[in-house]
Amino acid sequence: MKVIVIGSGGREHAIAWKLAQSDLVEQIFCVPGNGGTANLAKCTNAPMAVEDLEGILRFAQVQGVRFTVVGPETPLALGIVDLFRSHNLAIFGPDRQGAQIEASKAWAKELMAAAQIPTASYGVFDHLEAAIAHVRQVGAPIVIKDDGLAAGKGVTVAESLEVAEAAIAAIFSNPHKRVVIEQYLTGEEVSVLAVTDGKTIRALLPAQDHKRILDGDRGENTGGMGAYAPCGWVPPQLLAQIQTQVLEPALQALQQRGIDYRGCLYAGLMITPQGNPQVIEFNCRLGDPETQVILPLLQTDLAALLLACVEQRLGEFPPLAWHRGAAVAVVLAAQGYPGSYQTNKFITGIGKAESQGAIVFHAGTKIKDQTLVSAGGRVLNVVGIGEDLTEAIAKAYSYLKPIEFEGLIYRRDIGKKGLA
């Protein structure tokens, strides 16, 4: 079959890479894709904006595309699944109603409260003065969240009232904004991505993202500077607890609201010092960069798995199979990210890294005058796979050495928390 993968980042390159390995897939169109997908087997880039829902629909109809996989959250929140379903086209992802679980943090918190899913206490505020008064009453540390979509960067963990008030003011500087203010949780974060057909929900391997820009989890929040999987410190009994206390209640709550949720449900969790899961947030799509370490370890045919979700056959689908070992992804970013940064920097050394065994997923790249250049803040994901986490870390950092572009930055401690 012909498949569309919507998106242009490292997650979408990883999805297309994995789908291309399936005997079910004849051709993949990446919309719009990037410099990596441009040279991927079975893959062709189609330069359309991910927000151009009608254009993507017409393209799918003209090309005879049987199946579409949505990478980023924006087209989901805009209702691309509703549009495709109305034209009887198979598409992996929740509809517009279901995408509210990420598009509105307040909506998600209300769903968690109704379903008695463990999460931090919170308040929702529509006015600057009320939000400021609340944080002054509660005190710091405290967590400030933009209610809407913010590309994974709409959260401030405020260690002081000054930082909290500045974050609130920044959110309310835009019109029609709301802020969610949450209790500060302590513990260790883990991402549990699950796939669902609206009736059955199955967790993938647990992964840990590294959000902060600097080593030691310091500096500003980013879209993610690297990840590793699996998390050896998340034992089977904790995964079972997450299944029964988080994933299944969330799916039941969606069903009770009449939402036919067929896609990925991503639970960002804090594991408390007592070993209990607390939901930090839900997302309505596969994680980035978690996908880049989960999919290389997945032995099951991804196309078959996602189709089973769309066709509501997940309950009959065989148990997921995984390769042994661990995977680590190190993000190579542009100097200045997550703030202002320069693009169009020539990239060299990827071929040498791949010849050594690296898997390189492009995040912010494009082909310009037949040359690969940077086109985003997060530029590349360099993935190493090893028999264990120690080996995977060593391989990832060894593989990135030949890769160069002006202003290249990366964290040097990705995965080390998993060794502790």
User: By helix and strand content, what is the structural category?
Assistant: alpha+beta
> What is the first-to-last residue Cα distance?
45 Å
Major sheet description: 6 strands, antiparallel
Helix content bin: 25-40%
Walk me through the structure.
Strands 12, 15, 18, 19, 22 and 23 form a six-stranded antiparallel beta sheet that branches. Strands 3-2-1-4-5 form a five-stranded parallel beta sheet, with helices on both faces. The chain has a four-stranded antiparallel beta sheet with strand order 6-9-7-8, with helices on both faces. Helix 6 packs across helix 9 and helix 7 packs antiparallel against helix 8. It is 30% helix and 27% strand. The model has no long low-confidence stretch (mean pLDDT 96). The longest helix has 21 residues. Strand 20 and strand 21 form a beta hairpin. It has 420 residues and is an alpha+beta fold. It is built from 13 helices and 23 strands.
